[in-house]
Amino acid sequence: MQNVTDLKQIERTVQEAREYAESIVDTVRESLIVLNADLNVVSANRSFYQTFKTKPEETKGQLIYDINNHQWNIPKLRELLEEILPRNTSFDNFEVEHDFPHIGKRTMILNARRIHGAENKTEMILLAIEDITERKRAEALSASEVRYRRLFESAKDGIMILDAETGIIIDMNPFLIEMLGYSKEQFLGKAIWEMGFFKDIASNKDKFMELQQQEYIRYEDLSLKNADDGQRVEVEFVSNVYAVDHQTVIQCNIRDITERKQMEHKLHEAYQKIKTRQKELEMINKHLDSFAYSISHDLRAPLRAISGFAQVLIDTQGGKVNEEMRHYLDRISDGAKKMGQLIDDLLDFSRATRSEIKYEKINVENIVNDLVKAYRDVELDRDIEFIVHPLGEVEADKEMLKVVFSNLLQNAVKFTTYREKARIEIGSEQKEDHIQFYVKDNGIGFDMRYKDKLFKAFQRLQTDQRFTGTGIGLTIVERIVSKHGGNIWAKGEVDKGAEFCFTLPSKTHVDD
Amino acid sequence: MNNKEVAILLVEDNASDEELATIALKKHNITNKIHVARDGAEALEYLFGSVDSETLKRVDPLIVLLDLKLPRIDGLEVLRRIKSHPEAKKIPVVVLTSSSEEEDIVESYRLGVNSYIRKPVDFNQFTEAVNQIGLYWLLLNKQSP
Questions:
Q1: Per CATH, which fold does B15-143 belong to?
Q2: Contact B18, B26 (CB under 8 A)
């Protein structure tokens, strides 16, 4: 009896201990699951069923990998249960991340022990599953908060956080404190429109309301006053509204653009100066134009009078004008004519220098052939051999290029005047980025020592009175060529001939 | 109407040029009476009675020799007024000027000038040009009804 009573007593004690243990197991917040040696589910606690949205009847007696649509068939878990546990009797704190069909991605800490079952002493496995997904998230959040705070503290923009409801300043960064010369205490707890530096603009309550509604406000240039030194700070002000936890805040970013503004101001001033200067130059050019026009008109009139009345004297007083008088009257007349020519040349020169280049595609051979034909028609009594090689196409101002070839050919024709057989050759050579033209003659040539004087205005290398000219032709040629971005030079030898070479860039100005 | 009375309206502000033009015309036996206007305003007053008038007063000039650069109203304006008037536009206008500016030449022809002569410095060339153009238009105008 005693034994029976004792046995019952023991059984009751065991039963109580078991119930006690089970009630503990059931109230633990971690999910616990008990498996037998074959990894079939023996039991699980309430937390398990709640967390993984399942019921005892769906799990009991089944292989853990099979329950709930095989959602525990996780390679990592299999490795733990089948390889590590048989060797080590336990494993601790294995972190497993798994995407569950119903509850989504979860991070879990797994702990397991081999235990002995209460009744048949068979071996069992207690698996504790702790869902740390939320904790992880919180940790990550606090890391990003630290990062954000660091940015906030070290930013080279002034940042201020306001309560969106009340407009009261909650936070500001050190850069703002430095920029505006207010202490942290002067900022905190005040509504933004109470701050002196915003007195007209953002302090305006209406603007604040507008910000509340539109959730975004931007001022490109705002002038704020530093409380310490009274200096104005030019700023760019951007603010927007967002929610943090359950509070809506306004973040204002205030960038010091004083330096940029000063640069912009300087740039603007420089630009204005250039514009003024440009206008002045345009005016000067216009004046030059009308001046040239006046020269053309007014200077020629008295010359006409000089030449004209000298001629009238000869015509009307024929009988009384003796040989000597006639000679001087002719000199007067010639002088006037020469001066008329100089004025015309000067005008041609100024026109060539002033004119804008109008680029077009030009067949150079056509231009040269037309000029050659004109000379052939005029110089009928002379034996001139013109040789025109292929000259190709070039982009240039047609009228100007005509002037260039016309002047060069005119020179060649002029300085071969006393050759029994004159030879004038025009050709070209295509170089890498330009075309080189040449006009070669077998005329009287020139002394290379004076080659620098060739292209200077009104400089003549010829002292021979048989060759007339004012010495402006080559100067005009040089101006036109260099206006086109080309070069010009000459080679020559006294009594052998001269060769003039010039280049024109072959870059494209004209669209096809 | 006697064509010999007033046949040529010479619009010229420069006295020397006026005299030379007169000599040049006479040299070639153009003996029509020459009326000289010293500027554009005088020319318009002569033709229309006043600067603003729209009615042609004088139909007698057979030809107008017109300088471009003139005091008060310039030659191009005189040309425009003559050539935009339904009757006056029949009078031949020859521009006789120092200017060889492209714009002046183009504008003169656009306005309907009959001839454009650039006054050469050389007197013989000048008389030749005046003679040829002047004679041509004088004869032509006599023949037209």
A1: Rossmann fold (3.40.50)
A2: no
